[in-house]
Write a structure and sequence with these properties.
It is a single chain. The protein is of the alpha/beta class and about 525 residues long. It has 2 domains: about 280 residues, 2,3-Dihydroxybiphenyl 1,2-Dioxygenase, domain 1, CATH 3.10.180; about 200 residues, Rossmann fold. Helix content is about 20%, strand content about 30%. The protein is elongated, with a radius of gyration of 27 Å. The chain starts with a strand and ends with a helix.
């Protein structure tokens, strides 16, 4: 069978920083961008050589603003790339120029190794070696081919069962042990790449999250080979296996005895199956099962290639996500989710409301049983007033920061909140008049107690209450409060419950038009 690494997959927290490192600094080639096959809210990027050859590929699942993981046993811990041995000086100088943390060069198994860390803390090794073939070398604009990354040299796997892990990789993925130290067994494939099995007994266990390596995928000639390996694994009772058609390759997943996830992926059909080989990575593709879901595109984080114009990134007190349509108009919707949502939940609604509007989704900072909220809830209908006022003040500061940092036009910015997010908008307007000029409140209630008498002259507010919303009985108090502020206030009861949908869009669109928004 074909042996060797097909690709290595890790998890990134910030897509733009990831692209800037792997394309801008390392000079790899972006060969494919897709939505996640398991989670349509994830972006999946593949970097590799000129043709996206198996053995050159490193991929990233982007968990934008996701929680950091923990590197430990039961997980790969390092990615290694092969570079010409004489290029160590070039890469050390480049690391200093780009302010990339680096250590070395040092000798490992007779090869010079420069250790780097990517923006999420994943250890990336540049290994000086001529031990691997170079089917399709790729040179970027500022990295000559003589110094460019050739392909993957290998990976390091942490395990409490080094003997069992090594035996498993040798038995099923075509590796053989070629060297060893006191703590590392080096396994080598027929392709020349290596897996270093490191004894991590006594170390803590791994935890999934950003900044970790999810799995190593090994090469198989075809689907029949994958299924044959699956049969062998099942006969040995090696644990649960899952096989999937990933469009660009057919895959099998299994965990080795030490707990690390392994994949066996076919060499074909490859990344040129849905776009020409000379423009690989130029388009975003969705997995077949969500290809018709336009909302899936809106949920995926956007990025700019090195050298392309890009939106500035601001460090503001609330996690947020921008979506920029291909042909934007002058509208911006600032979208606030309901209880348990996050910064991307309302993006599809905003896109459906106006496909040409720029969208800014924001995540609440309070949590309840691990789920985001805008402020602490004491019961289903009572709220922590001190927390609400504190978070309203912080959100008002966020709005000012976003306007200054991103150049938002207050007159053409519409804040749209749902449920808990709508309650937050009402609190901000009542406590900090003038910060929000245009607001749509969907399924809001009177959450703020002892609301001050506020002058909201010049503010435009639309409040939408569901006739069948069980919380609708708490809306009249808020309607009365907002109606006495001097705002251009309109309240509409619509034929729906607590959820949101087309009935809301049918009410919001004419309100936007009537108010010149």
């Amino acid at each position: 069978m074909t042996s060797g690494i097909h690709h290595i997959t890790a998890i990134a927290r910030k897509v733009q920083a990831n692209v800037d490192f792997y394309l801008g600094f390392l000079g790899l080639h972006l060969v494919k961008r897709t939505g996640g096959f398991e989670d349509a809210n994830q972006l999946h990027l593949f970097y590799g050589d000129a043709s996206g050859s198996p053995g050159s590929l490193v991929s990233f699942l982007v968990w934008e603003e996701g929680s950091p993981g923990r590197v430990g046993h039961g997980q790969p811990s390092e990615i290694a790339f092969a570079v010409p041995p004489e290029s160590m000086g070039f890469w050390l100088t480049r690391a200093l120029q780009f302010n990339v943390e680096a250590s070395g060069p040092a000798q490992e198994f007779g090869e010079p190794v420069l250790r780097l860390k990517d923006p999420d803390g994943v250890i990336v090794k540049l290994v000086g070696t001529n031990a691997l073939a170079e089917p399709a070398p790729w040179a970027s604009s500022d990295i000559p081919e003589t110094h460019s990354i050739r392909r993957l040299r290998g990976a390091t796997v942490l395990t409490e069962k080094p003997k069992d892990t090594a035996h498993f990789l040798q038995s099923h993925f075509g590796y053989r042990e070629t060297a060893a130290t006191e703590t590392i067994r080096r396994l080598t494939s027929s392709s020349g790449d290596v897996i270093d099995v490191r004894d991590a007994a006594g170390f803590w266990s791994a935890a999934p999250g950003t900044g970790t390596i999810d799995h190593v995928a090994f090469r198989a000639t075809d689907e029949a080979t994958v299924l044959a390996v699956r049969a062998d694994l099942e006969q040995e009772h090696a644990g649960a296996t899952n096989a999937h058609d990933r469009k660009y390759f057919f895959s099998l997943y299994v965990r080795e005895p030490g707990g690390s996830l392994c994949e066996l992926a076919t060499d074909g059909p490859g990344f040129a199956v849905d776009e020409p080989a000379d423009v690989l990575g130029s388009r975003l593709f969705l997995p077949p099962h969500v290809a018709e879901d336009t909302a899936a595109l809106v949920r995926l984080p956007q990025f700019a290639l090195p050298g392309e114009p890009r939106m500035p990134q601001r460090d503001l007190p609330f996690v947020h996500r921008f979506y920029h349509p291909a042909k934007p108009n002058d509208r911006t919707f600032v979208l606030l989710h309901g209880s348990g949502g996050n910064e991307i939940d309302m993006l599809p609604f905003g896109h459906q409301l106006d496909p040409h509007a720029t969208l800014l989704g924001v995540r609440g900072r309070s949590t309840e049983e691990g789920f985001p909220r805008w402020f602490r809830r004491l019961s289903m209908t009572t709220f922590d007033q001190e927390d609400m006022r504190s978070e309203a003040e912080a959100f008002a500061a966020f709005i000012e920061g976003a306007r200054n940092g991103y150049g938002l036009d207050p007159a053409k910015t519409v804040f749209i909140g749902y449920s808990n997010g709508a309650n937050m908008l009402a609190a901000v307007m009542l406590l900090h008049p003038g910060v929000i000029r245009n607001a749509v409140l969907m399924r809001a209630m009177a959450a703020l107690e002892n609301a001050p008498e506020t002058d909201l002259a010049g503010t435009k507010i639309l409040m939408l209450t569901g006739k069948d919303d069980p919380y609708g009985k708490y809306a009249p108090e808020l309607k009365a409060t907002l109606g006495n502020t001097g705002a251009a206030f309109e309240a509409i009861d619509i034929d729906t419950g607590h959820g949101i949908g087309v009935e809301d869009i049918a009410a919001i669109r004419p309100w936007l038009a009537q108010n010149g928004l």
